[in-house]
Amino acid sequence: MKVNFGSVVVTAGICGLMSFAFLATALGTDYWYIIEMNPVNMSDTEDMSSHSGLWSINEGGKNNADSIDSFNTDYSRYSEIELHMLSMHSAIVVVLPFSLVLLLIGGICGLVSSLARSPVLLTGTACYFFICSLLTLCGVSLYIFYSHQAKAETERLVGPEGLAYIHTSFGWSLGLAWLSYGLELLTGALLLGAARVAKLKHSTSTMA
């Protein structure tokens, strides 16, 4: 089956663009982690449910951006475990935006290498996208570990009874970040395929 170079690079470009859009949307929304309170435990007018992102927490319909700022926090009043969690959060909010910036640069590199039809540049760009996907994976995995640690610490402080009427779950923002990771891998694989097609065409034209 003959593979068309143009269709492969266009598909790779669409996947790369979608991965950037998904990660950017995930970083800009506040549905990474959702906390829902059992209505039996509160009055009809009280809403204790919340959802949070990397930068802020929305509690009862009110957005609080200062409650999750790990860079401007007074570290002297926190325990060793809490300091460890703040360090994890600081790493998350650096790694994921950095991955987003790398994706933007990777898109430019992908465009240039596709126009040049260079197997070397296409292979290099594919490896670049694999590195981006690794950073995204590290950031998302670290966020999941951070969330579990936060829940465990809360349970230690208030006891299992204190969390009996609380339901926690990961939100669609985290799902978009996972989709971005998968599309980054797919983009890299497609670019490797395009590099192989370009190399075969170059070999054929040389032999002719």
Helix/strand layout:
Elements (H helix, E strand, L loop, with lengths): L4 H24 L4 E5 L12 E3 L4 E3 L2 E3 L15 H37 L2 H40 L7 E5 L1 H36 L1
Antiparallel strand pairs: 1-2, 1-5, 2-3, 3-4
Total of helices: 4
The first-to-last residue Cα distance is 21 Å
- Average pLDDT, rounded to a whole number, is 84
Structural category is alpha+beta
Q: What overall form do the CA principal axes indicate?
A: elongated
Over the alpha carbons, how many angstroms does the gyration radius reach?
A: 22 Å
Q: Main beta sheet: strand number and arrangement?
A: 5 strands, antiparallel
Low-confidence runs of at least 5 consecutive residues: none
Count of beta strands? 5
Oligomer: single chain
User: Order of strands across the biggest sheet?
Assistant: 4-3-2-1-5
Order of helices and strands: HEEEEHHEH
Q: Strand-residue fraction? A: 5-15%
Question: Helical percent range?
Answer: 55-70%
Structure summarized in a few sentences:
A hairpin with a 2-residue loop joins strand 3 and strand 4.
Question: What does this protein structure show overall?
Answer:
There is one protein chain. The chain has 208 residues and is of the alpha+beta class. The protein is built from four helices and five strands. The protein has helices at 5-28, 80-116, 119-158, 172-207, and strands at 33-37, 50-52, 57-59, 62-64, 166-170. Strand 3 and strand 4 (62-64) form a beta hairpin. The relative contact order is 0.19. The model has no long low-confidence stretch (mean pLDDT 84).
